[in-house]
Amino acid sequence: MTTKYDYEQEELKRLEREGVALAYHYIRGLNTKQSPLVFVHGWAGSAEDWRKVVARYVARGESVLVYDAAGFGQSQFESETMANWADYSLSRYVQDLKALLDAEGIERVRLVGHSWGGVVAMSFAARYPERVEALVPIGSAYFDPEKLLHQVLRWVSYLIGWILIFLKPLLRRSPRLQRLAVRRYLYRPLDEADTAIMVNGVLQSHNRAIVQTLLEGYEVRFKKLCPTIQCPTLYIGSDHDAVAPVLYVTAFVPFTPHAKSATIKKCGHFPMIERPDELIAVMDGFF
Asked: 71-82, pLDDT tens digit by residue?
């Protein structure tokens, strides 16, 4: 099985949605027994985060849709004015995902989301249960807006978001700073190519999208959302994830019908980059 895959070999498609042309790839595989896999990237990320995982699934003949959410990656707004006044609500991102599926005539999917993208995926599954066959949030953390500790974490994250924005000019010029910036998210240092994927995700992200989606994510009432998810759900955590510790990942399970959890060993916040084979093995056991 080859793991080499280049998105540029496939047609980059566009879908106009509220001032932004959503950039996505839909690779139709020969395996028609399984519903398509849809991957939603995390906060300040892009479709490139899924490159290794997509490569392996495409090699197996699976159909895969992967895209850049509005304000991230290549899905940028038509103007700075539009970007600054855009809707960055969770509902908007759910509707964007629905529009992509509708555009490609996809009825049901196996939906996988990372971190913030996992929250988008969860919200989509709750809103459109008939469209989701199975759900896999990866590295998504349970928060309760009513708890003081979680509000403190919200504002700490908000501060980190602004620090990231101010550091962007330096990140573009300093490979050393790039390595330091991604290190806290990992179990082990990445090679240059993988580091570039993570850094480029941040650099491509619009500043407004960075701030607003971060704040929106902390306002989700998971105690109300999770019980409405009816499909089989697998919450995946990693044992060295400083962003979404395993305890915060498994906390979803009691509130979610038909849910279970799994943990990837010796891995940080990005298992699809650090441990793609282990991640796929866990998902295969679920699907």
From this structure: 999 999 999 999
Which sequence spans correspond to the domains of the chain? 7-286
d(CA 32, CA 16): 28
Q: What is the fold, at CATH topology level, of the domain defined by 7-286?
A: Rossmann fold (3.40.50)
**What are 167-190's pLDDT values in tens digits?**
999 999 999 999 998 998 999 999
Cα–Cα distance for residue pair 220/233, rounded to 1 Å? 18
Q: Is the pLDDT of residue 10 over 90?
A: no
Q: What are phi and psi of 91, to 5 degrees?
A: -60, -40
Q: What are φ and ψ of residue 39, in 5° steps?
A: -115, 130
Could you give the angle at the alpha carbon of 262 between the alpha carbons of 154 and 60, nearest 5°? 110
